[in-house]
Structure formats: C-alpha cells, structure tokens
Write a structure and sequence with these properties.
Elements: E1 2-4, E2 7-9, H1 13-30, H2 32-35, H3 39-52, H4 54-63, H5 65-87, H6 92-108, H7 115-142, H8 145-159, E3 162-166, E4 172-176, H9 182-192, H10 195-212, H11 215-232, H12 237-271, H13 273-278
Antiparallel strand pairs: 1-2, 3-4
Length: about 280
C-alpha cells in the first residue's frame, strides 16, 4: 500500500516488484554520481522490469490491431538496421545495445501506468535537479575561472562523473552523469501538474536544464515548448495576429545572436562529439 497525496493505492505483489524495479532503475540512472561503478544494477532493473511487465505489455499490444501492426513493422525496421549496421562492420556491442534500447522505447508505450511511478520519478529527478542547481550556485560564488581547470574539472573527469567547466562568463556547465532525465522531467511536469505546483516544479527543472549546459537539452526543450504552446492555445484571429507580431519581433531582435550561438555550438560539436555520433 502506497500513500499518494490523500489517496491510498492498494497494490499486489506483482506491482510491488515492478515499483521496486522502477525505483532501482531511476535511482541508479540519476545517482550515477557517485554510484557510476554500479551501472549494471540499472541494466538488471530495466530488463527485470520489462520481464515482469511482459504479460501486461502483450495484452496491450494484441488489444489494438493497428498498434500491433505498427510495433511489428517497427521491429522489422530495427532488425534491418541492425543487420545493415553489422554489415558496415560497426561494433557489435554497440549495435546490440542500441537495438535493445530502441526496442524498450517501443515497448514502454504499453507499460501499465501507476501513480507510484510518477511520484518516484519526480522525487529522484528532483533530487538530481537540486544537485545541479546547488552545484551551479556553489561554484558560481566560490570558484573563479582560474581555479576550475586544475581542481574541480579534473576531479569530476577523473572520477568519471561527467564534466564541470566554465568559459569564464560566470556560469558553469554542470554536465553530470544522470542528467539525462531532466528534460523529460520538465516536459512531464508541464503536463502532469497544475497551477502553482506546475510553475514551481517546471521552473526548477528548466533551471537545471539550462545549468546542465547540454546543447541538445536546450534544443529539445525549445522544440517541446513550441509544440506545447501550439497544442494548448485556443486559436483566434486576435491571437494569431499577436503571436505573429511577437514572433516577428523575436526574429528581428534575436535572429543574429541566435545564429551566432548555434554556429559556435555546431563548430564546437563538429570537432569532437558529432563525428563520434556519426560513427
């Protein structure tokens, strides 16, 4: 039995196992600092979670013929891509890993929803966001540009906990292992919460995304917010004119700085991380 707000959730043994595995999975993913040496526990929890859920997943798939057909074709496409990648002499370990990851992404749609999952997710990702924000302000006020190279950054890199650095502008990029769920937490908070709680939780996760200093996080967040705004706006002629004017002003004021920023990021990425992703 789990208390969620003012409600009491009664769960059976199978659900208890799934909740425990889900907690272990999210905990190990977000707490890779300092438990990065125990990532195998996260993988075991992930596989175990889907094994325990397989009966529900299969029942969900067969209930909808269209979804069933889409899943079958998706697995066929994934399998073709896997064999093609093997034909190109790519690393078999990476091929199998990403094949499993994409397969789990497809199957995750059919997992039975539990409010306990949501509560666990926000507690653990909220802890990660608090660490990122706290570390940002700690470094911002206590360390200067001259001290980061030989101490802080070296410590995190040597520990395998990610990268923490600054360009000397007073802001630090807190690229910790375990940050991957922060954008998803922000997206879900806008959909799940209402009123003041949405504003507080959403703004906290948004701050952690900005402080994380991950370019992909920022691009994904902008894309999500654009779709979120378009989907939730009740369109009228007045709103169309207003949004067009705001968009036009934004383009005039921020187009050049935005292009310069993206060009700089693309140049930096093209020197290292993008070639690795292409490989």
């Amino acid at each position: 039995m789990i208390t969620f707000g003012n409600k009491i959730l009664v769960i059976n043994e199978n659900q208890k196992i799934k909740i425990l595995l889900f907690f272990t999975l999210v905990f190990m993913l977000t707490r890779q600092v300092p438990f990065s040496d125990y990532n195998f526990i996260m993988n075991i929890a992930l596989v175990g979670f889907f094994i325990v859920s397989i009966k529900y997943i299969w029942g969900s798939i067969v209930k909808n013929n269209i979804i069933n057909l889409m899943i079958v074709w998706s697995f066929i496409v994934l399998s073709i891509m896997m064999f093609y990648s093997i034909f190109l002499d790519n690393n078999p370990n990476y091929i199998i890993r990403f094949y499993l990851i994409l397969s789990f992404v497809l199957l995750a749609y059919f997992i039975d929803g539990e409010k306990a999952y949501v509560k666990i997710f926000f507690i653990l990702t909220g802890l990660q966001a608090a660490i990122v924000i706290g570390l940002e302000f700690y470094l911002m006020f206590l360390y200067d540009e001259a001290s980061f190279g030989s101490s802080i950054r070296h410590f995190f890199l040597a520990s395998g906990w990610g990268d923490v650095y600054t360009y000397g502008d007073g802001l630090w990029n807190i690229q910790l292992r375990g940050n991957a769920l922060l954008p998803f937490a922000f997206f879900i908070s806008l959909i799940y919460f209402r009123g003041r709680r949405k504003a507080i939780v959403g703004s906290s996760f948004l701050a952690s995304i900005l402080f994380a200093g991950n370019f992909a996080f920022v691009v994904g967040t902008i894309f999500f917010l654009t779709l979120y705004l378009l989907y939730n706006t009740k369109w009228t002629k007045q709103k169309i004119v207003l949004y067009f004017m705001v968009f036009f002003v934004f383009i005039v004021l921020f187009l050049k700085p935005s292009i310069d920023f993206f060009e700089q990021k693309i140049i930096l990425k093209s020197q290292s991380s993008n070639p690795v992703r292409i490989d």
